[in-house]
Amino acid sequence: MAFWRRNTHIEKERHVKANARDYNDKFSYADNRIKTSKYNIFTFLPINLFEQFQRVANAYFLVLLILQVIPEISSLSWFTTIVPLVLVLVITAVKDATDDYFRHKSDQQVNNRQSQVLIRGSLQNEKWMNVRVGDIIRLENNQFVAADILLLCSSEPYGLCYIETAELDGETNLKVRQALTVTSDLKDITKLMDFDGEVICEPPNNKLDKFTGTLYWRDNKYPLDNEKMLLRGCVLRNTEWCFGMVIFAGLQTKLMQNCGRTTFKRTSIDKLMNTLVLWIFAFLICMGVILAIGNTIWVSWIGRNFQVFLPGEEFQSNAVFSGFLTFWSYIIILNTVVPISLYVSVEVLRLGHSYFINWDQKMFCRQTNTAAEARTTTLNEELGQVEFIFSDKTGTLTQNIMVFSKCSINGQTYGDVYNEFDEKVEITEKTACVDFSFNPLCDKAFKFYDGSLIEAIKLEDLAVQEFFRLLALCHTVMPEEKSEGHLVYLAQSPDEGALVTAARNFGFVFRARTPETITLCEMGRAVTYQLLAILDFNNVRKRMSVIVRNPQGQIKLYCKGADTIIFDRLDPSSEALMYTTSEHLNEFAGEGLRTLALAYKDLDEDDFEVWMKKLLFASTVIENREDQLAVLYEEIEQGLKLLGATAIEDKLQEGVPETIACLNLADIKIWVLTGDKLETAMNIGYSCNMLRDDMNEVFVISGHTLLEVQQQLRSAKEHILGLSRVSSVGDVEKTDMFADDSVFEEAIIAEYALVINGHSLAHALEPQLEHILLDLACLCKTVICCRVTPLQKAQVVELVKRHKRAVTLAIGDGANDVSMIKTAHIGVGISGQEGMQAVLASDYSFAQFRYLQRLLLVHGRWSYFRMCNFLCYFFYKNFAFTLVHFWYGFFCGFSAQTVYDQWFITLFNIVYTSLPVLAMGLFDQDVNDQNSLRYPSLYKPGQQNLLFNKRQFFLCTLQGMGTSFLLFFIPYGAFSVMVKEDGSHFSDQQTFAVTIATTLVIVVSVQIGLDKHYWTAVNHLFIWGSLTVYFAILFAMQSNGIFGIFPSNFPFVGTARNCLSEKSVWLVILLTTVVCVVPGLVVSFLRVDLFPTLTDKVRHLQQSRKKEGPQEQNLRRVRRTSSRRSAYAFSHQQGYGELITSGKNMKMSTVSSAGSPGRTPHSSTWIENMLKRKNEVSCTSDESGNRAKQTPKQQVRA
Amino acid sequence: MATSYNAKEEDGHHSGASSHGAAGVVKSKKPDNTAFKQQRLPAWQPILTAGTVLPAFFVIGLIFIPIGIGLYVSSNNIKEFEIDYTGVDISNPCYSCAKNFSWNSTTPCVCSMNFTLEQPFESNVFMYYGLSNFYQNHRRYVKSRDDSQLNGDQSALKNPSKECEPYRTSDGLPIAPCGAIANSLFNDTLELYHIDSNNTRNTIPLVKKGIAWWTDKHVKFRNPGFIKLNKHLCTNKPVNWRKPVYELDPSDPDNNGFINEDFIVWMRTAALPTFRKLYRIIQKKSNTTPTLPSGKYVLEITYNYPVLSFDGRKRMILSTISWMGGKNPFLGIAYITVGSICFFLGVVLLIIHHKYDTRSNSADIPN
Questions:
Q1: In whole angstroms, what is the distance from residue A244 CA to residue B332 CA?
Q2: Which of A157, A1109, B210, B264 has its CA 20 to 30 A from that of A198?
Q3: B88, B98 in Cβ contact below 8 A?
């Protein structure tokens, strides 16, 4: 990733000259090639091996291998280590190679996308990777922008162009970019060829919303800002073509810089495993030291005298030196306590679990035809330990589809469906929709279920007509009629689009607009309204109005806005209606709908004239124009008559509230991090049931200075903890609070929610405040952060990750979530949408948020459970296997003589016992998937690390040690005087070895049978198969044939035959097996019987249910209890009204047809105004005023 | 174990048919609905319940105790006689031999020990020599051999494995058989006489055939083709040996070389530092008279093997055998103990289970 950094000195300033490759080459900027792969064919082997040996385990085995070559200490032949080691290296290498191959492929696919580059006077198709800094490229509609480019000109007037930045920040509304006036005339290729401007700008950085630079051209300087840049990852929309000059390419683009570094994610089990391996290593050294001391003593007491029969070299008879050598010998033979196969098996298991995720039908989304995908195969068990979920909103919780779902017109609600008994009916896919076939211009995708509204329309109810007329007139949507009757609306915010579409379907079709007219098709009749003024929306006003003159000559003001705002400005005559409507609004809001109130006013011609004059005057003043306009708007928007209210559903993804409720039951905290506005975010919070009315308090932190934020945070915390708990001594308290906040977390029963704003978050994330923020956030049940930048998302995740020892999961769908996804322990991407950035950066991807429930509660839980069981058993098995050598040491003069045959040592872990434990790790389930979802509390042991921790490890190694003790001493007791049935002597080393080995294999097989909860055919096959294979290999390796070929490698010839044909041997095996297994059985029986865990209970229940037969699954239904008032449904900013009235965004043809010469001179200065104002608006778009100057990061949306 | 086979559960999806219809147009990426991929493999799900665990304990108890008793009784029926002839004590007839042992002496030292068998030994009697504190299982000792050479491999004969050091070559010639194990071959000669009522010594015929494992004698150990005759073989005898390997048994030419049974028995190294190895078999003569009637016996030892230096002991053991091998009280006692413990545990667990029964509470599962 970071290759380019090495060969360029740190760039302070960037000089780019258009059409001058030679000049730009001097600076050796990164080209547009993207490389995420690690290896090529030649570097693969060395780099991969180097990486592999960096892993402690592999290095450890390499050292062992070297030790084994030294003959004085080699207690095992080299093949016992090298066979498994090579196996491990090969498997890992193959996996790395395939991963890298896919990375190569995806790089190649991106790099080979075509783009049109202006080279030597003509446009030529070039691959993306060949695009260079300084090139001028041409983009067409709906194309991805190939690099970060400076917009030079476009097909639209004034060098405007529209882009969608979903890949970057997740927002789907269109954004406007405008070229410099001087460059916007360069519309043909020859002019562009001659363009030789030089841009001097900031070095590459990851700030998506900021760009500073200067264009030097024809001895003039032009300032450049973000408004003139098209960033890689954006898509050009509604613009036929545009030209731009590449400023940043490839890895230096803001998109790639924002991707964050790819860090290798490790699971907590991994880390624990590494610690344990170190412990084991220490244990190994202890053992080695004990035995070495034993050897020293033995040599000086016995060995010295035993030299008659066992002479040694000089150094071997030196007791201390002999002890030293023995130490190493024992390190070698005891090394199997950390078996190499552990690491391979863990990898295999994770891979298997990943496949199960990929294969899960219940995580397959039929609509988008996407299955869940585990893109990282190393994190599965961590899915069973998640404590914090960070979720994006748009596209993750919501579908980003606004649907006109209900309305209240003149005191009458529409939208609910009732059956014949007058009961409300749940709207499902099967409910019949209203038939709009009477309307040839209707949108087929629009669905409405309440037929009474259409009746009202057909009855020509005046209020209803006026209602829809308002919706059709009062907006800033642009229509596009490609062919007759085929209308497409281009709305800046999806809610506006939804309203206009609703009006369209109910017979008030918005058909065309010019800067001064709006043409509707009202119930089949074309009606043209004269557009007199647009009183545009902004966040303070929270409403927008239009003033139109209808064909009859009446002047009317139509206004829509937040209910509180509208209700304040109503004519007294509407009071009664206001109360009814207000009730309806409550009802709508209670269902989580976004509401708007609609009102109109008839204007008197003369009054309007006077007002209009004032308006024209006000719009020309320089100072305080905004305020003056606001006053004027306020003046005319008085005495409105209420029409009704609309309710728009910000459609949640399927099953979101249920999923959130379920995850909450599993003690998973969900934080929503969204770039959206406070209102929208809170609204979704309510509709997802994350915010509820019965919560004790919802804290909204929206301070815009550090002190304010600190104050707000502190008071919120004091509120929760009760004043007595918080000392007033400033910062001292934060440390001790932090220390014992976990205690409080338990103690607090009341439910709180925290909503924090982007600006405030920027302050709250500073080191002084982050503790108090974190404490507060953890005390709250729900946390919503709104208007956050991608970087802040990552910072929040990082904060939790750093200070809470908890597993975090981030889920999102857009490129703005990438940094968060990469930061969290686990990143989940929502796939199936257009943008793939999030998915590409994620560890898991699936199509819908609700699958998260299954991913965590079923797959995660199983993975964790299996992995823990696997590890416990694995350590048990290897301790039982290895420590027999330790006990034997006391009887063989501490000479590092192995108990077993060397072949057995080689094969034990990789052949005899690998498959059963793998099968257990792959297939075991304690509780089936339905019950895992039914009882989310089953998830909690994972969060608390209960199934595998240091205590568990200690217990299972203890069991292993016990088993090894019995494995050695029972045969020892039996063998000391044993003879064969034919009287020949029998207590020889080889017989002893075969007996203990056989017992060991049987004991561990029985033990795994007891540890296992779920015996599938595969498990049976593997367990019985392994036993069979053990005996087959045993007899094969001790057969005459193989001895005849390699007499010195297989000295055990005939032992198995002689040994296993003895009854007494089998009696020893039976006895040892029973004695080894019974203690464990007693303990686990007592545990299950006396202290059953939830799992045990559910298992029991599951068993008894099964006997009764399948039962009806009782589904949890989430009831929304919220009755929150008003959420006004605007998600865009101010400014488009002016665009429309000026005609700037009309296509040439429409502008000319409008033919209003009086307007044109006025609007020439307008563009600058608009853009200037838009900047301000974006800063002040938050309801609490202009504070953005302190936080320039907030301007993403501008 | 409580068991039940988990039949393939109904798939919650009813969409099977409809989705297949759509699949015709766009290739559906829907994962296959197989029991394996959906992790619904039919499975046996055992649970530890009182109903399954407690009977298991009783069954183990009930099986183990009789086995233990059987083992104990048959072990007790085995007759065994053991005599230590190391010569540690001055009273021991072999004391002087043990004291004056020297590797260089050419005249063997002979001593004899008297002993009395209280009970007659029926059927075949096996004569063992036992060594204590002899570390035949020491790593360097164990590996100090060349199996290829012992298997008759010519090249290994001439060039023994390095593992045999320092008993690999002597006087420039390879040693056959090489290594510390072979070098330390037990070479005491034991002869047994029965003193009958007339005080005459009757030699008891000791059979030396069939004391080694068949596989060892016929597979693992083989002579190089010409060794039978070849006294001029270019090998040297092991340092401690008095005669070369092809003269180990002057009485039976087929019992010489690497396939000499005493040698084979020795070469099968013992697992523990105290061990016994079969020396001779005393075969039953007829059904009427016991093999070894009770009475007085003399054991005549040609004392060649020094063990005193490392505090070792040498014993001669006479033993009969039963269906489960030699005398071995350990197994019988162990079985009885384990069986009783299991039975006892079963009772204790039963009481605990009844007293503190917390089951039947699956209703209180929180959501």
A1: 94
A2: A157
A3: yes
Q: What is the pLDDT of residue A732?
A: 42
Q: Is A676 annotated as a binding residue?
A: yes
**What pLDDT, on a 0 to 100 scale, did the predictor assign at position A320?**
87
Give the 3-state secondary structure of A1050-1110.
CCCCCHHHHHHCCHHHHHHHHHHHHHHHHHHHHHHHHHHHHCCCHHHHHHHHHHHHHHHCC
**DSSP one-letter string for A355-369:** HHHHH-GGG-BTTTT
Is A392 part of the annotated catalytic residue set? yes
Residues 193-222 of B with CB under 8 A from A: 210-216, 219-220
Residue B6 in contact with residue B43, Cβ under 8 Å? yes
Q: Report helix, strand or coil for A617.
A: helix
Residues 67 through 96 of chain B touching chain A, CB cutoff 8 Å: 67, 71
| CA neighbor of A678 nearest in space, from A785, A762, A770 | A785
The nearest alpha carbon in chain B to A665 belongs to B367
Q: What is the pTM of this model?
A: 0.81
Backbone angles phi, psi at B158, to 5 degrees: -85, -25
A47 neighbors A39 (Cβ within 8 angstroms): yes
| pLDDT score at A55 | 74
Question: How confident is the model over B237-262, as pLDDT tens digits?
Answer: 888 888 888 888 888 888 888 889 99
Kindly state the helix (H) or strand (E) to which residue B285 belongs, with its residue range: none
Q: What is the pLDDT of residue A1121?
A: 44
In this predicted structure, what is the pLDDT of residue B279?
A: 92
Q: What are the residue ranges in chain A where pLDDT is below 70?
A: 1-9, 166-173, 258-264, 313-317, 427-429, 485, 592, 723-749, 832-837, 1107-1198
Mean per-residue pLDDT of chain B: 83
Q: Is the CB of residue A1100 less than 8 Å from the CB of residue A935? A: no
B29 closest CB neighbour out of A370, A1088, A1104: A370
What pLDDT score was predicted for residue B161? 86
3-state secondary structure of A845: strand
pLDDT score at A741: 46
Q: Which residues in A778-794 are b (16+ Cβ under 10 Å) and which e?
A: bbbbbbbbbbbbbbbbb
A997 contacts A902 by C-beta, under 8 angstroms: no
> Any known ligand binding at A641?
no
Could you tell me where the beta strands, DSSP code E, fall in A415-506? 417-418, 424-425, 478-483, 486-490
Q: Are B84 and B359 in contact (CB under 8 A)?
A: no
What is the interface pTM, i.e. ipTM, of the complex?
0.91
- Predicted confidence band at B16 (pLDDT cuts at 50, 70, 90)? very low
pLDDT for A1195: 36
Q: Measuring CA to CA, how many Å separate A708 from each of A109, A677, A711, A713?
A: 50, 20, 5, 9
Which of A297, A76, A971 minimizes the C-alpha distance to B139? A76
Beta strands in A50-156, from DSSP E residues, in sequence order: 114-119, 122-127, 136-140, 148-154
Give the gap in angstroms from C-alpha A1060 to the nearest C-alpha of chain B: 13
Q: What is the pLDDT of residue B2?
A: 37
How far is the C-alpha of A116 from the C-alpha of B6, rounded, in Å? 62
Q: Which of A169, A360, A392, A775 is catalytic?
A: A392
Classified as helix, coil or strand, B79 is coil
User: Which residue type, as a one-letter code, is found at position A336?
Assistant: T
> How far is Cα A164 from Cα A230, in angstroms, rounded to an integer?
10
Number of Cβ within a 10 Å radius of residue A342: 22
Instruction: Give the number of residues written for chain A.
Output: 1198
User: Is-contact A395 A814, C-beta < 8 A?
Assistant: yes
**pLDDT at residue A1151, as a whole number:** 37
Please give the structure tokens belonging to residue B229. 């005759």
Task: Find out whether B185 and B129 touch, Cβ atoms under 8 Å.
Answer: no
